[in-house]
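Postdoc handover notes: sequence design on the structure in folder B. Input tokens:
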């Protein structure tokens, strides 16, 4: 295997980007409809509609006096680190809170949440592209609302544009890949992957530019700063892994500085591949500079590589494991150790009898320091890598990994404590997990999580 092969970063200077005129239509009509939710039993209630409010005249911008526009999507953080910081749920311990259960009338694929002054808003995408929205005041019952915006392509994750109490679907450019989640940058720019496998930047004036770069067609764009993004590029089909929907895997991780069309390759896998659709950006070695964590594999082994986001080379690697048994899903980097030490958490073999594994960095090596087995955070062939996250939702001041149990009928909280990785709690989903496990953070620091099932029910823990 080639883990010892040269990993020196290369700087690629590209010719000036091609500017292409584009017309961007934003739908901003807001029509509300109301309904009721249910308690903590499996019994579900479908919200009943009430009189819709009058719709404002459609406009290309939201009213300026509502404050700045923020964006929310199922990935939660634009840096790809599935770590939510907060003070627990708003209504109590997750072991005790009453859930809100909502019948969706269809099969859900994605859930996105956002906090507004009028309450939490949860938006569910069904498998046919239909979008359903609910507003849930903390401690209150769900009210169905209309979420303005274009209908989604089937399987496309919903991205929300939030301004004050106004929530709409962020307009996705017509040439965007349905697997692309746009990242919003300074100056009103949006960066996304188009349907021809190109990283594309949409300017506020409607023009497009793109570097001379072939990216992984289902790569998630990761935001480094207001001017830089990180993507997986130079795909190959040299290994028929198919864990994430197709046989294509990236071979480089690339930083693009928008506006100046500068491209820098910070990691190259040589004869191996990067087996993921998104890098994870976080400070792994504690030097105050973000690193890029990647799952790397070949036809025999799979391991973790941490490379510097500045292009200065590899920071750390893990020991490899047998690739024939499955792959490794990177989850989060943060204060996950017994006394808040920074650790990397992964799910080893997430498609089968997966293990939550905590890794600690020592002298350039990521070493496993705690393991707990019995979870399944991914379905083979799915591009949904958001069925696991790290957050403190039980109000004990410690971050746990929130992950589906092996039967995918429950979510469990796993924590790395003094005696190793332990189960802290488990809560039923009321069915089999179908979507991501979504999380939102409120201005007061409290959290809420939600997930939807194959049986067509959305369950919310406030």
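Designed sequence:
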């Amino acid at each position: 295997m080639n883990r010892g092969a040269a990993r020196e970063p290369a700087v690629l200077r590209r010719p000036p980007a091609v500017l292409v005129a584009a017309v961007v239509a934003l739908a901003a009509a807001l029509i509300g409809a109301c309904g009721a939710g249910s308690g903590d039993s499996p019994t579900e209630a479908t919200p009943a509609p009430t009189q819709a409010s009058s719709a404002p005249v459609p406009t290309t911008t939201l009213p300026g006096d509502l404050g700045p526009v923020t964006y929310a999507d199922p990935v939660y953080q634009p840096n790809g680190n599935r770590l939510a910081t907060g003070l627990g749920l708003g209504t109590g311990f997750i072991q005790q809170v009453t859930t809100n259960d909502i019948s969706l009338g269809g099969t859900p694929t994605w859930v996105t949440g956002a906090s507004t002054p009028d309450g939490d808003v949860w938006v569910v995408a069904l498998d046919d592209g239909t979008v359903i929205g609910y507003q849930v005041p903390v401690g209150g019952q769900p009210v169905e609302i209309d979420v303005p915006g274009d209908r989604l392509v089937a399987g496309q994750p919903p991205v929300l544009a939030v301004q004050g109490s106004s929530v709409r679907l962020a307009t996705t450019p017509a040439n965007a890949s349905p697997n692309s989640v746009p990242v919003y940058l300074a100056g009103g720019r949006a960066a996304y992957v188009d349907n021809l496998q190109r990283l594309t930047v949409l300017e506020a004036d409607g023009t497009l530019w793109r570097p001379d770069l072939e990216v992984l067609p289902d790569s998630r764009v990761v935001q480094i700063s207001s001017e830089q993004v990180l993507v997986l590029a130079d795909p190959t089909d040299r290994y028929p892994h198919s864990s994430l929907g197709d046989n294509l895997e990236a071979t480089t991780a690339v930083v693009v500085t928008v506006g100046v069309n500068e491209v820098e390759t910070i990691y190259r896998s040589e004869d191996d591949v990067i087996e993921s659709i998104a890098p994870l950006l976080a400070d792994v070695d504690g030097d105050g500079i973000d690193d890029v964590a990647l799952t790397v594999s070949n036809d025999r082994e799979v391991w973790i590589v941490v490379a510097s986001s500045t292009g200065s080379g590899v920071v750390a690697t893990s020991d490899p494991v047998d690739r024939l048994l499955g792959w490794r899903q990177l989850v989060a980097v943060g204060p996950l150790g017994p006394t808040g030490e920074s650790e990397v958490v992964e799910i080893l073999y997430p498609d089968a009898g997966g293990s939550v594994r905590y890794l600690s960095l020592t002298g350039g090596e990521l070493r496993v320091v705690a393991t707990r087995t019995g979870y399944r955070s991914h379905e083979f062939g799915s591009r949904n890598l958001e069925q696991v996250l790290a957050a403190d939702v039980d109000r004990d001041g410690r971050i746990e990994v929130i992950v589906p149990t092996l039967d995918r009928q429950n979510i469990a909280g796993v924590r790395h404590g003094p005696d190793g990785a332990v189960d802290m709690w488990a809560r039923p989903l009321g069915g089999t997990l179908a979507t991501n496990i979504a999380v939102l953070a409120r201005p007061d620091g409290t959290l809420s999580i939600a997930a939807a099932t194959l049986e067509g029910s959305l369950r919310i823990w406030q």
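Context for whoever picks this up: The first strand starts at residue 10 and ends at 13. Don't rerun without checking with the PI first.
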